[in-house]
Amino acid sequence: RNQVRVREMLESIRLAREALKNLPDGPVMAKLPRALRPQGEVYHEIESPRGIIGLYLVAAGDVMPYRAHWRSPCFVHLQLLPIMARGQLLADLTAIIGSLDIVLCEVDR
């Protein structure tokens, strides 16, 4: 798993360099109002180094969202632990958890 992670990092660097080459000239930031006040709900996923992060927002047209919920990839990865630990020694549990790259404070939200 660590070798795969290193290859993913190298590929990410390559993609970032390619994206920088293709950036058009001109202003980098768009001009936006100080506070957007949309109404409705949206769920969006982004790819992170540990997996897919999900964000669910509900807005009622106010400055702050009515509800915001983050879905951590670490919580999803932790669900694999009983399957991966089945039949293994208790001493191997630390290495199994380490290979999943779980951040426990993200799981306990």
Please characterize this protein's 3D structure.
The chain is an alpha+beta fold. Among the domains are: 37-71, no CATH class; 72-109. It is 39% helix and 23% strand. A hairpin with a 6-residue loop joins strand 2 (51-60) and strand 3 (67-71). The longest helix has 20 residues, at 2-21. The model has no long low-confidence stretch (mean pLDDT 87).
Write the layout of secondary structure elements.
Elements lengths: L1 H20 L17 E10 L2 E10 L6 E5 L1 H6 L2 H5 L7 H8 L3 H4 L2
Antiparallel strand pairs: 1-2, 2-3
Structure summary:
Helices cover 39% and strands 23% of the residues.
Shape descriptor reads flat
Taking the sheet with the most strands, its summary is: 3 strands, antiparallel
Main structural class: alpha+beta
CA radius of gyration is 20 Å
Order of helices and strands: HEEEHHHH
Strand order across the biggest sheet?
A: 1-2-3
Mean pLDDT: 87
Per DSSP, the total helix count is: 5
Q: Which ranges are low-confidence, i.e. pLDDT below 50, for 5 or more consecutive residues?
A: none
Helix content: 25-40%
Measured between the Cα atoms of the first and last residue, the distance is 26 Å
* Overall strand count: 3
> What amount of the residues lies in strands?
15-25%
